């Protein structure tokens, strides 16, 4: 079970095909097939279900993929850590959708200019999904909204649960969006629309909106959507309310046909595993700091 075998296994799992994996890895198909068979013999389990040319992970295969990904990530991190003055390798960044749209273009451009040799991979998702990605080493770092961010002083490193470190990098003003013809709102009691348009569970903004709205009146229903454009569409139609950062709304060419109520401010944190330190990550932190 060497790193080369793990890389071949992960590639076949991602491509679901020996043929495509061999082409991607620049290996002959027979070599890929042999290495997968050797790995299965070594582990004593079948990692794939073979349906013609299609390769689908078995339950043990899916479990092993998580470990293989962590081992490969740790090996890459170790290589980078041995050369602390040279930014190289890859940096796998997770980000909330709103942050990726409104906050990241400038620092990512600056980072690429400073470190063109680093392969940057950006993934978006809910804060909880991104936290899980950092903990499982699928991501090196992530930009999230975290409940602890409501209580932290700006620009101060903080220790989060489960061996994570966090640093506030952006301050977001969150606005409650209501239908344009909704009466003025001062408290949660005044909100007449009892459906919230938001992302899937694990989104901190959604949880903050639910907590505030549920502090008065009947519990809100949640209409799960996949984008902030969809949230605004639901609100504009009069069917929902939504919670959005002002920085995202500032990107809109035309003002949306909604009523906006400033609700609260919360920090966006850069989070990473304790002990994670590479030159690429240090340069990325510098780029974020320069743009904040």
Biggest β-sheet strands, sense, barrel: 7 strands, mixed
Instruction: State the shape.
Output: globular
Following the backbone from N to C, one meets helices and strands in this order, namely: HHHEEHEHHEHEEEEHEHEHEH
Question: What class, by secondary structure content?
Answer: alpha/beta
Strand content: 15-25%
Q: Helical percent range?
A: 40-55%
Calculate the mean pLDDT score and round it.
89
CATH class of the largest domain: Alpha Beta
Distance between the termini: 44 Å
Count of separate DSSP helical elements: 11
- The count of β-strands is 11
Kindly identify the CATH topology of the largest domain.
D-Maltodextrin-Binding Protein, domain 2
Rg over CA atoms, rounded to whole Å, is 23 Å
Instruction: Provide the low-confidence segments as ranges.
Output: 151-156
| CATH architecture label of the largest domain | 3-Layer(aba) Sandwich
GO molecular function, one term: transcription cis-regulatory region binding
Pfam family, one: LysR_substrate
Keywords: DNA-binding, Transcription, Transcription regulation
Domain HTH lysR-type: 1-58
């Amino acid at each position: 079970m060497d790193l080369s075998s793990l890389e071949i296994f992960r590639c076949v799992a991602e491509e679901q095909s020996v043929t495509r994996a061999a082409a991607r890895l620049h290996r002959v198909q027979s070599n890929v097939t042999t290495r997968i068979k050797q790995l299965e013999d070594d582990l004593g389990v079948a990692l794939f279900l073979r349906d013609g040319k299609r390769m689908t992970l078995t339950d043990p295969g899916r479990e092993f993929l998580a470990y293989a990904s962590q081992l490969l990530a740790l090996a890459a991190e170790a290589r980078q850590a041995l050369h602390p003055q040279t930014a190289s390798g890859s940096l796998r960044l997770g980000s909330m959708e709103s942050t990726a749209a409104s906050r990241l273009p400038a620092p990512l451009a600056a980072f690429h200019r400073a470190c063109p040799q680093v392969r940057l991979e950006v993934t978006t998702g809910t804060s909880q999904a991104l936290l899980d990605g950092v903990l499982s080493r699928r991501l090196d770092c992530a930009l999230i909204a975290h409940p602890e961010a409501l209580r932290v002083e700006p620009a101060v490193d903080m220790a989060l649960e489960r061996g994570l470190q966090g640093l506030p990098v952006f301050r977001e003003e969150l606005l409650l969006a209501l239908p344009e013809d909704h009466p003025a709102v001062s408290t949660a009691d005044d909100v007449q629309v009892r459906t919230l348009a938001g992302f899937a569970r694990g989104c901190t903004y959604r949880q903050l909106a639910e907590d505030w709205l549920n502090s008065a009146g009947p519990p809100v229903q949640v209409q799960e959507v996949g984008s902030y454009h969809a949230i605004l569409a639901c609100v504009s139609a009069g069917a929902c309310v939504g919670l959005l950062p002002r920085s995202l709304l500032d990107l809109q060419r035309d003002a949306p046909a909604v009523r906006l109520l400033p609700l609260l401010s919360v920090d966006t944190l850069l989070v990473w595993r304790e002990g994670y330190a590479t030159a690429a990550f240090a340069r990325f932190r510098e780029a974020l700091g320069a743009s904040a």
